Amino acid sequence: MAKYPDDLEMHRKHYEEIAEKLKQDTFAQFLGIQLVEVGPGTATAEMVVTENMLNAHGTTHGGVIFSLADFVFAVACNSYGKTSVGLNVNTGFLAASRAGDTLRATAVEEKKNNRTAWYRIRVEANGELIANADCLAYRKSDYFVPVE
């Protein structure tokens, strides 16, 4: 039976390399998303809503909110250096936000095994919950950091 690297050890040993790799998400950069924190199976990021991110009703477009949630999901599930991809995301939009608001998204790992992992995401604006998401990731066999 194959021996898999310890996830926490991989996170600790390769933290800087993992964080730098995940900060290179060009779409997140385009949206102005700032990665605030990366932990083992967790992530927090923020972005300021700009005028070009609004829908026809003058509130933040759902695609923008989803993109922020998806980014912290990606960071959290890749935080061990093991390549992971999204399988399913179920998002609920609970309240509106507007231009000038700072959105803060937090991902927390609820359960994982060698092949799948489940995350809960909260997106807040001004301390108010505006969206949540339940996310399922597929954990591939390869790593994007060195495995000894």
UniProtKB/TrEMBL annotation:
MF terms (GO), sorted A to Z: acyl-CoA hydrolase activity
Keywords linked to the UniProt accession: Hydrolase
Thioesterase domain boundaries: 57-126
Family annotation (InterPro entries): Acyl-CoA_thioesterase_PaaI (IPR052723), HotDog_dom_sf (IPR029069), PAAI_dom (IPR003736), Thioestr_dom (IPR006683)
Tagged with keyword Membrane: no
Matching Pfam families: 4HBT (PF03061)
Signal peptide start and end residues: none
NCBIfam families: unchar_dom_1 (TIGR00369)
Protein name: Phenylacetate degradation protein
Organism whose genome encodes this protein: Tumebacillus flagellatus
